[in-house]
Amino acid sequence: MRPMNGFRDKRVIAALLEKIAERRRGLTSPVRIMEVCGTHTMTIHRHGLKGLLEAAGVEMVSGPGCPVCITPNEIHEAALGLVTGRENTVLATFGDMTRVPTRRGSLQAAVPARGSEVKVVYSPEESIALARKSPGKDVVFFGVGFETTIPSIAFMAKSAAAERLANYSILSALWLIPPPLKAILESGEVRISGFLYPGHVSAIIGTAPYEFIARDHGFPGAVAGFEPGDILLGILSVLDQIREGKPRVANEYTRVVRQDGNPVARALMAEMLEPMDACWRGLGVIPASGLKLKPALAAFDAESKYGLRIEPRSADLPGCRCGDVLRGLIAPPECPLFSRTCKPDSPYGPCMVSFEGACLVYHKYGAPRP
Amino acid sequence: MSRISLELGSGGKSMRDFIAGKILPAFGNRELAGLLDASHLPGGIAFTTDSYVVDPIFFPGGDIGKLAVNGTVNDLVVSGAAPRFLSLGLILEEGLEEADLDRILRSIRTAAAAAGVRIVTGDTKVVRQGQGDKIYINTSGIGKVVAVPRPRSVRPGDRIILTGTLGEHSLAILTARGDFGIEAPVRSDCAPLIFLLPFWKSGVLWMRDITRGGLATILTELAEQAPHPLIIEEESIPLSRAVRAAADLLGIDPLYLACEGRAVAVVPEKKAAAVLAGIRKHPLGRRAAIIGRVDGTTGRPGELLLRTASGGLRLLEPLTSELLPRIC
Amino acid sequence: MCLGIPSKVIEVDPAFQTGRIDYLGTKIKTNFALLDDVKIGDWVIVHAGFAISRLDEADALETLDMLREMAEKS
Fold first, then answer.
1. CATH: 3.40.50.2300, 3.40.50.9100, 3.20.20.70, 3.40.50.11740. Which one for A69-177+261-316?
2. Of A303, B273, C34, C42, which is most buried with the most CB atoms under 10 A?
3. B87 three-class SS
4. Distances (CA, A) of A118 to A306, B14, B100
5. CA torsion angle B92 B95 B97 B100 (round to 10)
6. Is residue A197 within 8 Å of A178, Cβ to Cβ?
7. CA–CA separation, A205 vs A211, rounded Å?
8. Percent of chain B at pLDDT above 70?
């Protein structure tokens, strides 16, 4: 028996959807809820929840929480450059990263230099194990992620430093969830009714970092887990908050998310990493929205170790309106690049990279349909 | 200056584009254009070929030799032909342990006997160390045509039958490689599908073995040819506990995992129950199930839809890229 | 990318803060450095080979009961 079967049960889902439809009927304005996290997007897609929710009167919008999508092209290209340009270099990374199309192709379609390879790993631990057992190779871990994944990448930096592992380094693209939400909310009009906050990011950071969204901006929201039942419980909570006119940060994933998150993981992040102003694909530079290895760890930072000059420029995306798509201000075809210069195999903004991004879905299937 | 990348061999979209863009224009003829697993030739003969480069060469439930026989045998069976003769081409890397080669040859002999095929011609080459990976095998197969698959004749109401659980071969290879630190109680499903041959006479309209790309990719290919959309039910698809677990842990969709001893067939509604009962009588078909149907009301022609366990509807697309390393 | 699976700890090597978890009979190597004092039998959420949080079993069962009740009522 799967531990979470009860959260996937068809009757449970039907009952929750009925409750959602009932709550929705009491509201007059449209209900659009942004699922911030890419893994929520995945669950909604895998279980076919989008259509069921639309039938219940709730529109789901994918937010900026897909690290693969919001990592600027230049960083993907730097990874590609390492494995195609340097001999005996192993680029270890998560499977998700290997499919991202860049102007120079994707990692999985790349032909590595002699003795080099792209190695898909499940855990960052596998990357450091590779470095230990192959002293003749330079192992670069292309570590990308949000707060859920960042502590494990920080742990790799700590281990490499402790072992003085000279053939190991990290090409990092580490992103924080609250700053882009703040940026989106402060940039002007937002046609969103509420937020579904990421469950596993929150397992690390807790619930306090979202308080400003309810307090300063008046948006309801709920932290939700990743089973279909979890997601619907989160949506139900958002609808209740809209109805009561009392926005807050509800926690609908209490079996995993503690109010103060995971202090051990956060301490490790603080020990190894420092904040930076990071450039998000399609959203531009957001203050203190990323993390990087501290200068003392430069020997393990692929960017300094290999003298890479990665200059992600938001100017790289002239005309890209992903920000407006995310805020619900325009539909994808209203962007001047949509389906012209910005296509699935040559995407500009994150909404065309993510397999469930609004622009990609629109490009493939046309206007939303049941 | 474009060069061949591993992605081309993944069985996904880039391989299909390669075949359509380079192979077909170069050699295009009526037999090849069908792109069947095996081509039907004049004289009631079916002909196929396949190469095997699996790493590791031994894995739980099989080895490269067993795979090389069953893979080619299965391509004939699902193309409507009774397998008769195989060729055996061996490419050996200098330094291969002779004991390993002996073990593989014994396995080939056993598999050929089990499938009722004879190995009637062959070739052996040796390449320098580092120029190959222990052993590569090519087998071509000749069979006698017993039926002509008719994917365009499927009608609304026709049932889709899956002959067993999905993904055990993929997972066995992954586990044997020691990738991802995963330990799963699983064996490859590698097996000959000759027990399915009689069902061509019981009304099967179309059949495919589920290899690279998995069930979803293979059914999208049928959906492209069929005049009506296909719909499958997530709850009806048999999965082993180990595959469910690995899929959850690694974030992989079992619908895209490879098998080496499973097939999917389309059967008219009236004959479906009898065909299912027949398949289930065979030890390799014990977990067979009706997993879906050709549908006249949901979706649009060309589409493959999944009714999820939660009650939602999801459009399935062919595998576009490979998340896993080489598996067969 | 933020996939996390509730699994049971079956092996702990305190010296290296590593071990293995079991999920439906499948076992996978896991790093426990992000949690204090992990013991055999604990339920944890595993993401990319790291246990990132403990699973509160009682809380999970309570939610499941609530959902089951809701399904039976409707």
1. 3.40.50.11740
2. C34
3. strand
4. 17, 18, 29
5. -20
6. no
7. 12
8. 97
Residue A112 is classified by DSSP as P
Q: Measuring CA to CA, which residue among B313, B317, B183, B310 is closest to residue B250?
A: B183
pTM of the model: 0.92
Which CATH code fits B151-316? 3.90.650.10
pLDDT (average), residues B169-184: 91
Taking only the tens place, the pLDDT of each residue in B258-276 is 999 999 999 999 999 999 9
Q: Band the pLDDT of A366: cuts 50, 70, 90.
A: low
Which of chain A's residues have a Cβ under 8 Å away from the Cβ of B181? Answer: 122-123, 125-126
CATH architecture for residues B37-145? 2-Layer Sandwich (3.30)
Q: How many Cβ atoms from other residues are within 10 Å of residue A166's Cβ? A: 13
Instruction: Test C49 with B181 for CB contact under 8 angstroms.
Output: yes
Contacts of B184 in chain C (CB under 8 A): 25-27
CA distance to partner chain B, nearest, from residue C37 (Å)? 22
Asked if B242 lies within 8 A of C27 by C-beta distance, the reply is no
Distant-in-sequence, close-in-space partners of A275: CB < 8 Å, separation ≥ 6:
A288, A290, A291
Q: Taking the CB of residue B84, how many other CB atoms lie within 10 A of it?
A: 16
Calpha distance C33→C31 (Å, rounded): 6
**Cα–Cα distance list, A229 to A5, A36, A356, C73 (Å):** 10, 17, 20, 16
Domain boundaries, chain C: 5-73
* Residue A317, φ and ψ in degrees, nearest 5: -115, 55
**Max mean pLDDT range (A141-155, A342-356, C57-71):** A141-155
In 3D space, the residue among A349, A41, A64, A317 whose CA is nearest the CA of residue A179 turns out to be A64
Q: How far apart are CA A275 and CA A179, in angstroms?
A: 11
CATH 1.20.272.10 for domain C5-73, yes or no, is: no
Task: Please give the Cα distance from B56 to B67 (Å, whole number).
Answer: 12
The verdict on C15 touching A (C-beta cutoff 8 Å) is: no
pLDDT tens digits for A209-255? Answer: 999 999 999 999 999 999 999 999 999 999 999 999 999 999 999 99
Percentage of chain A exceeding pLDDT 70: 96
Interface residues of C toward B, Cβ cutoff 8 Å, are: 3, 5, 7, 20, 23-29, 46, 49
Instruction: Map residue C7 onto helix, strand or coil.
Output: strand
Residue A185 sits at the vertex; the CA angle it makes with A179 and A190, to the nearest 5 degrees, is 145
Check residue B327 and give its pLDDT: 35
Provide the CA A330 distance to its chain's centre, in angstroms: 22
B286-316: pLDDT as tens digits: 999 999 999 988 888 999 999 999 999 988 9
Reported as a single tens digit per residue, the pLDDT across A267-324 is 999 999 999 999 988 888 999 999 999 999 999 999 999 999 888 875 456 788 888 8
Q: Which residues of A touch B244 (CB under 8 A)?
A: 2
What's the mean per-residue pLDDT of chain C?
Answer: 92
* Single-letter amino acid code for the residue at A95: G
With beta carbons under 8 A apart, name residues in chain A contacting C36. 264
What is the structure's pLDDT at C1?
55
Question: Could you report the per-residue pLDDT of A43-96, keeping only the tens digit for each?
Answer: 888 898 988 999 999 998 888 888 888 888 899 999 999 999 999 999 999 888
Rounded Cα–Cα distance for residues B34 and B22 (Å): 15
What are the tokens at C51? 């246990």
**CATH homologous superfamily of A5-63+188-251:** HypD, alpha/beta domain 1 (3.40.50.11750)
Identify all chain B residues contacting C20, using CB atoms and an 8 Å cutoff: 183
The closest CB to that of B251, out of C3, C25, C26, belongs to C3
Quote ipTM for the complex. Answer: 0.95
A:C CB pairs within 8 Å: 143
